[in-house]
Amino acid sequence: MTENADPSSTPGEPATSLAAIPDFSPDERYLLQLAQQFLQDAGFYSYLMIDDEQRWVAAADDEAGRVDVRIDAAAYQIEVCSSSPGLFMEEESEWRRTALERLARRVVPNVARGMLVEHESAFWSEEDRGVAVCIARHLPLDDAQQVPLVVRQGLDQLEELLTRVESELRT
């Protein structure tokens, strides 16, 4: 891993690491850039970045959700996610809204375990104050041209998945 030196260190002192940039082999870069290019050719706004788990991804954004494409062993790991912000925002009572959100934080993992299939996930998003869902798929590395198709299929399924999970919270 490459390290960035701490600009506050004085000359003669060992520099400390502010952030570690994960290794990115030429092969991984090529494969992610290929997926990125196919996404761009299909009309997605796509870019390379480091995700919150310090992995390189070809990311894309769409009105229906967000996309991360990673290299995982001998396959592309494609994850499409979306959220439903402010699930209980219409609740006038701050106390009741807080209680409903607290309950949802506890119920969503149970719904995910009991209702969703292996490649689907759901969790409570603190940032959005609502339910977030993801659909994960694997695609062989030699099928990079299929990345946009798999992404579009996943994005098309997100709304139904969000509705299914949220309906369990409202019952």
**Beta-strand percentage?**
25-35%
Rg from Cα: 20 Å
What separation lies between the terminal Cα atoms? 49 Å
- Assign an overall shape: elongated
Please describe the biggest sheet, giving its number of strands, its sense, and whether it closes into a barrel: 6 strands, antiparallel
Overall mean pLDDT stands at 87
- How many E-type strands? 8
Please give the count of helices.
3
Give the % helix: 25-40%
What low-confidence regions span 5 or more consecutive residues with pLDDT below 50? 1-11
Features:
single chain; 171 residues; alpha+beta; 8 strands; elongated
Note down, in words, how this protein is organized.
This protein has 171 residues and is an alpha+beta fold. It contains three helices and eight strands. The strands form two sheets. A six-stranded antiparallel beta sheet has the order 3-4-5-6-8-7. It has a two-stranded antiparallel ribbon with strand order 1-2. The protein is elongated and about 55 Å long.
In brief:
By secondary structure, this protein is an alpha+beta fold. It has helices at 26-41, 94-115, 147-169, and strands at 2-5, 17-21, 45-50, 56-62, 65-72, 75-84, 120-125, 130-140.
What's the topology here?
Blueprint (H helix, E strand, L loop, with lengths): L1 E4 L11 E5 L4 H16 L3 E6 L5 E7 L2 E8 L2 E10 L9 H22 L4 E6 L4 E11 L6 H23 L2
Antiparallel strand pairs: 1-2, 3-4, 4-5, 5-6, 6-8, 7-8
